[in-house]
Amino acid sequence: MEGVEDKALIYDSNCPMCCWYTDKFVQTGTLEKDGRVSFDELTTTQAACIDWQRGRHEIPLLDKKSGKVMYGLDGLTYILSARWPFFAPVLQHPFGKKLVKPLYQFISYNRRIIVPHGVAAMPKYDCAPDFSLGWRLALILICGGIFVGLSYAITVVQNPMAAMFIFLPTVLYLLTIVLGSRKNGREAMWNATGDFFVTQLSTFLLFLPFFLLMKWLLNDNVYGLLGAWMLMQVRLLFSFVRRMKNKGYMADSQAVV
Question: Is residue 39 situated within a structural domain?
C-alpha cells in the first residue's frame, strides 16, 4: 500500500476538520510530507491552476508536475484508493457517489460552523464556502432533531415544568439571535443559528452521561434532572458566547448576541 506522490492536497487552514484529516493523511503515509498545502501557502503558479469557485467547495488535489487538479470526491477517491484499493469500487460507482456526495456537500458548506475556529483577519486567499441556506437549514434541523429526540428520551417532558425548562432556553437564544442580527443581515442570522444548534448539541452530548446517571440513580426525579439541565445551560451560555467572540460576531455593538 503506497501513498500518493507528486500531489498536493490544498486545504482550508481555517477549518479544523480539514487540518486534522489532511494531517492524518501525511502521518499515515497516504500523502508525502509536503503533500498538504493550505490555501494561504500556495505559490502564485499553484494558485493559477485552481478553479477558485469550485475549490472553495471541493478540496483541490493538485498535481505538482502537470498542474492538473482534481476536486472534491474525485481527489479524495484518488488518495484513498492509492492507499486502500477497496475504496475505489465503492466511491467510483455511480450509486456510491450519489450516496456520498450529499454528505460531502453537507460538511463542505457547513465546515466552518460544525467545528468552531477563529478566522484570520486578512487571509491571503479567501477560501470560505458560499453561504447555502439549504445546507445551513439541514445542519440546524439535524442538530435540533437529535437534541429534541434525546431530550425527550431522557427527561420527563410529560411534566409541563420540565418541558418548560428544557425548551424555553432554546427559544430565548433564538429570539436573541434574530433580534441581534437584524442589522447584520440574513446570512449572519442563519450562521449564528447554526452555531447555536451545533453548540447546544455538543454541550448536551457532553452532559449526556450525567443525565443518564441521574435518570437511573434518581428514578426519573424531575428536580434532579432539572438541576443537571441548569448546569448544562450555564456551560452552553459560556461556550456559545466564546464561539461568537472567536468568529467576530461580538466585535462591535452590532454583534449577533
Answer: yes
Q: Whole domain around residue 242: which residue ranges?
A: 134-246
Which residue reads 437511573 in cell numbers?
A: 216
Q: Indicate the pairing of strand 69-71 with strand 36-38.
A: unpaired
Q: Are the C-beta atoms of residues 153 and 220 closer than 8 Å to each other?
A: no
Distance CA 129, CA 105 (A): 10
In a domain, 256, yes or no: no
The answer to whether residue 121 is domain-embedded is: no
Angle made by CA atoms 80, 81, 86, in degrees to the nearest 5? 110
pLDDT, tens digit, 9 for 90 and up, residues 178-202: 887 777 788 888 999 999 999 999 9
User: Mind listing the pLDDT tens digit for each residue in 67-112?
Assistant: 999 999 999 989 988 888 888 888 888 888 888 999 999 999 999 8
Q: Please list, residue by residue across 91-122, b when 16 or more beta carbons sit within 10 angstroms of its beta carbon and e when fewer do.
A: beeeebeeebeeebbbebbbbbbbebbeeeee
Co-location of 144 and 107 in the same domain: no
Of the CA atoms within 13 Å of residue 82, those in its CB half-sphere come to: 17
Structurally, how many domains does the chain consist of?
Answer: 2
- The DSSP call for residue 153 is H
- For the chain, the distance separating the N- and C-terminal CA atoms, rounded to the nearest angstrom, is 51
Pairing status of strand 36-38 against strand 7-11: parallel
Choose the final residue of a domain: 81, 114, 147: 114
